[in-house]
Amino acid sequence: MLEMEKDFDSKLKIQGNSSSSNGNAGNVQRSKSFAFRAPQENYTIQDFELGKIYGVGSYSKVVRAKKKDTGTVYALKIMDKKFITKENKTAYVKLERIVLDQLDHPGIVRLYFTFQDSFSLYMALESCEGGELFDQITRKGRLSEDEARFYAAEVVDALEYIHNLGVIHRDIKPENLLLTAEGHIKIADFGSVKPMQDSQITVLPNAASDDKACTFVGTAAYVPPEVLNSSPATFGNDLWALGCTLYQMLSGTSPFKDASEWLIFQRIIARELRFPDYFSDEARDLVDRLLDLDPSRRPGAGPDGYAILKMHPFFKGVDWDNLRAQIPPKLALEPCTQSPAGDDVHDSSWSPSHIGDGSASLARQPDGAASSSEGTGHITRLASIDSFDSKWQQFLDPGESVLMISMVKKLQKLTSKKVQLILTNKPKLIYVDPSKLIVKGNIIWSDNPNDLSIQVTTPSNFKICTPKKVMSFEDAKQRAWQWKKAIEGLQNR
Q1: pLDDT higher than threshold 80 for residue 165
Q2: Is residue 410 part of a domain?
Q3: Are 195 and 167 contacting, i.e. CB atoms less than 8 angstroms apart?
Q4: 171 assigned to active site
Q5: pLDDT per residue over 277-314, tens digit each?
Q6: Is residue 55 part of a domain?
């Protein structure tokens, strides 16, 4: 374990200290050292009292944490070192830390300090006690246009700041738009961030700033069509996601929602967009323009910058110079909750002895699922474009569609082999050799759980059991529970 920690530290090591950096970040872009605003501390997890889980990602969890000696509450992002190293995510973690350290805007979550131990990396972030915008939409059903205008304006203000620095967020969605206790918006989760070539943000060597143009990051329902077509990232990516988010605020659902990622992607490519009758002409026009198939034509992405977007009739009456002084919409609280996130909220599954060792219970779900939202996939970050690639269509019959698809490892006694596991609405369950593009196995379907069942052993590992055979799989995207729910949901249809 000590060797792993030293190896990880050598990959993550950034020369810096706890003092603030002087001078413009752009002036030190080629520097090999970097002085962090948010210091690297020598804290341990025992210095914090852990509370409710805010969210779960592919290699991280975010939990409410109160520092015992000061009483200050943070949103503590806990990242699994072993998983990060195994999946070659070190450079991305490093980039997120560096970028967050340099962002200074009231509409962006603040990073205060970091620390680490043998198992985990920790980032102490600003705690947004109002929760996610997603929860407000869910609790209210849908937002009024006045409420949506307020939130959208604050997002636009923060995005303008980010884009002016030459940075693309790449995962704008209601789950990543957090609310302060007063109800103001803050953009969170910079795990997919992409600095552009002329960015004013300091990017150090070996940070993940030059990923391939076709790298697919983001969340299925908010991914723009140009990303699905492997075009390079642009500021227009975030503006498309803003359009999807505004639509969801006003309607209660995302514009391209469908039964599977495959079907969502097909709707996005076809720009299959329908507006409810109650959308005002101004709201309809703004969403329509933000969801333009040409990213350069989306308001905010053209040569006039954000001026065109902010002058749109939907934003009439918005005081752009004093946004944070305005009174936010009233928050709809969680049922049976006295405050947005009170100190009495505590998740007994969080014990310091469990942190980072991969054995912690992720949330108090009766079936062990990571969170109530895991089944909907709104937390999952997609890492490749495989799930949309047309090459898988050759394995489908006419009228057949993919419900679930993942690149997984098929585990055998001494070896493991990567295969593409595909579940269709036929129903059909097959696994394909991704290089030779031939079917390697057809798992005989049955609606009877005695003849076809799925057992989940960890968030990544599951077994598909038939009377004649038990097959073990490992899904690096930690979708084991989603596979179980997808198969059992089809059996119970």
Answers
A1: yes
A2: yes
A3: yes
A4: yes
A5: 999 999 999 999 999 999 999 999 988 899 999 999 99
A6: yes
Residue reference for tokens 């299925």: 220
- 245 and 153 in one domain? yes
Q: Is 399 exposed, middle or buried (0-12, 13-18, 19+ CB in 10 A)?
A: exposed
Judge if 177 and 41 occupy the same domain: no
Residue 73: give its domain's CATH number.
3.30.200.20
pLDDT per position as a tens digit, 333-374: 877 544 444 443 333 334 443 343 333 333 323 333 333 333
Q: What burial letters (b/e) apply to 434-463, b meaning 16+ CB within 10 Å?
A: beeeeeeeebebeeeeeebbbebeebbbbe
Does residue 79 sit in the same domain as residue 49?
Answer: yes
For residue 356, being part of any structural domain is answered with no
Beta strand spans in 295-437 (E): 402-411, 416-424, 428-433
What is the model's pTM?
A: 0.70
Q: What is the span of the domain harbouring residue 395? A: 390-491
384 within a domain of the structure (yes/no): no
Q: Are residues 188 and 101 in the same domain?
A: no
Instruction: Calculate the dihedral angle through the C-alpha atoms of 305, 311, 315, 316, rounding to the nearest 10 degrees.
Output: 160
Structure-token pair, residue 319? 């005081």
Pair (321, 412) in one structural domain? no
CA angle 479, 340, 459 (to 5 degrees): 15
| Catalytic position from the list 101, 157, 171, 189 | 171
One domain for residues 316 and 414: no
Burial group, residue 316, by CB count within 10 angstroms (0-12, 13-18, 19+): exposed
SS3 call for 42:
coil
Mean pLDDT of 133-162: 97
**Distance from C-alpha of 466 to C-alpha of 484, rounded to nearest angstrom:** 14
If you average pLDDT over residues 412-416, what whole number do you get? 84
Range with the largest mean pLDDT of 104-118, 201-215, 261-275: 104-118
Closest listed residue to residue 128, CA positions, set 73, 204, 56: 73
Q: How far apart are CA 412 and CA 423, in angstroms?
A: 21
Same domain, 54 and 199: no
Residue 322 has pLDDT above 50, yes or no: yes
* Under 8 Å between Cβ of 473 and 409: yes
Longest C-alpha distance within the chain, in Å?
A: 68
Q: Which of 50-64, 284-298, 461-475 has the highest mean pLDDT?
A: 284-298
Q: How many domains does the chain have?
A: 3
pLDDT for the residue numbered 33: 55
